[in-house]
Amino acid sequence: MPEIQTMGSNxxxxxxEQPLIVNQHQQQEEAEExxxxxxxxxxxxxxxVGHFLSRWSARMREFSVALYMINIWPNSLLLTALYGIVxxxxxxxxxxxxxxxxxxxxxxxxxxxxxxxxxxxxxxAGGTVIALLACSDLKSTHFMTFSLLVGVTxxxxxxxxxxxxxxxxxIEREWVVVISEDQPPGELTKLNSVIRRxxxxxxxFAPVFSGFIISFISLTASAIALAxxxxxxxxxxxxxxxxxxxxxxALSEKERRIASSSNDPKQSTADPELTKxxxxxxxxxxxxxxxxxxxxxxxxxxxxxCFNAWKVYLKQDIVLPGVALALLYFTVLSxxxxxxxxxxxxxxxxxxxxxxxxxxxxxxxxxxxTYPVLQSHILTLRTGLWSIWSQWSFLLLCVGSIWVKNGxxxxxxxxxxxxxxRLGLWMFDLAVIQQMQDQVPESDRCVVGGVxxxxxxxxxxxxxVMGVIVPNPEDFWELILVSFSVVTCxxxxxxxxxxxxxxxxxxxxxxxxxxxCFMRSS
Length: 522
Fold this sequence. Notes:
The protein has helices at residues 2-34, 41-72, 78-104, 107-134, 138-141, 143-180, 186-216, 219-247, 249-263, 272-291, 293-302, 305-314, 319-327, 337-345, 350-400, 407-439, 445-469, 476-502, 508-521; strands spanning 35-36, 39-40. Helices cover 85% and strands 1% of the residues. α6 packs across α17. It has a two-stranded antiparallel ribbon with strand order 1-2. The protein is mainly alpha-helical.
């Protein structure tokens, strides 16, 4: 009987153990499904949603502010143009400094400052816009008050774009790279593509959402909705991104590693000879500065943070691709304010321009799906080469539109060329960004990102200046030729970079190898 009881108890233990094993297997399978190529799916989704909330707010504001300004001062593009100059000029001047701050501050501190300043600036700008729209006669009755409110709107816009720049550098240039470390090679390409896709989706649909509010309710309701949206979304955005920071150990580990290396006393005495040479060089510089007061002034200027950031940028191996990407911002061949105004002057209905803009954004979204496939076959460098020259090829349609006599046909050809060129443009953008992520040292990544955005904004600012120099829509063909020439220069610059790195552009030996095969087959 004891033996029978022992056998029965063993059978019960086996029955109990089997469900436990099954549950363990199920938990392992759920854990494996929860991780996407080694990264937790839930946290990556939080990153995507947080980035979406940020970009949606920025794109809504970007679209709406031009309509606010032209309604505040009707029959004049002055306020709209000045607002664009203030925003672009702010990033061009302070972009390198913002990149340095992001590099020095902790991730959490950058996240807090970004969320707070962006939200505050958008709410203040919304309040001033509501006041200007509600008091439509303020310009004629109290011009000083009108100017003050416009100035506060401009200042808030500058603070908003700078805080948005800090968030862009943090997410796109820093977190994406750190998260993809020790992951499969294609993980960084995938993250970059999805991040860019989110931005293009917001660029497509946020103006539609704002347009519906403006068209069917009012401009004032749109400003109120934008302010309320920012108050609500910024809280959710911060919670999502802070959960990503707390849930992915690589982010906190990198900060601890940097903090320990900066506090390590051995770092300061690692190379006494190098320290000695640097001290002697500083002594020589100070002697020279004493003899020439002008040299001392120049030395102080060169030690400013913005100049130090530019020196770091110019030392990088990817400076030529970065300049080539920035040159593409010096153009009117996009569905921006200048080209939109020219198309409207040509007699193209607004809804047709909106449809063309939507098609353009859709092609840009398609580029984020095409890029990972192309990059996996021909790698990042050659993907950038094929991308920029495909953009150049489609822009030939825009150049051809100059000689088309029919105005509607010419405008249609112009819109078709610009929309089709977005495929190459956004693939080239992804290729250059990934080269910066791969080749720029970890310590310089944020600074280089800030300078790159500053350079792009400077080129965008020059585009506005070009429109001021040639304001007549009849002469828009001159701006088309200038823009096409700049894209050509960007393509040649990147091609030279490829030749300098790889010492060749095409595998001619493979082409020659095809001829014997062709002869044998014939």
